[in-house]
Amino acid sequence: MALIALPALAAEPAAEQRLRHLLDHDCGSCHGMTRKGGLGLPLTAEALVGRSDDDLAYLILNGVPGTPMPPWAPLLTAGEVDWIIRELRGRP
Q1: Which candidate, 85, 54, 86, 57, places its Cα nearest to that of 71?
Q2: Cα 51 from chain centroid?
Q3: Confidence at residue 8, expressed as pLDDT on a 0 to 100 scale
Q4: Which of 44, 36, 42, 82 is nearest to 61 (CA)?
Q5: Which of the four pLDDT bands, split at 50, 70 and 90, describes residue 92?
């Protein structure tokens, strides 16, 4: 599943602000506020080396059964997931 970045998302500060809040607070509540791990695994760029964008998108959208990682598909678009992955990897 190839994800396509949506140019309109970058032009919408409110959308980016909402995603940054989600990443910092919702993801951070399990993966650590600095994303170095906690209840969930680390989400630093270094920790994600070797994981494809498609693999990360699948995990974000579908969650991980039997763990606290929920499926975010009901709340996020593919473009928003792409933004989150780029942010985690430190890519523009």
Answers
A1: 57
A2: 13
A3: 46
A4: 82
A5: low
CATH of range 14-89; options 1.10.287.130, 3.30.479.10, 3.20.20.10, 1.10.760.10: 1.10.760.10
Residues 6+ apart with CB under 8 A from 23: 84, 87, 88
Give the span between the Cα atoms of 55 and 84, in whole angstroms: 13
Q: Determine the residue type at 88.
A: L
Read off the amino acid at residue 19: L
- CB count within 10 Å of CB 55 equals 13
Q: What is the pLDDT of residues 38-83, one digit of tens each?
A: 999 999 999 999 999 999 999 999 999 999 999 999 999 999 999 9
Contact 37, 31 (CB under 8 A): yes
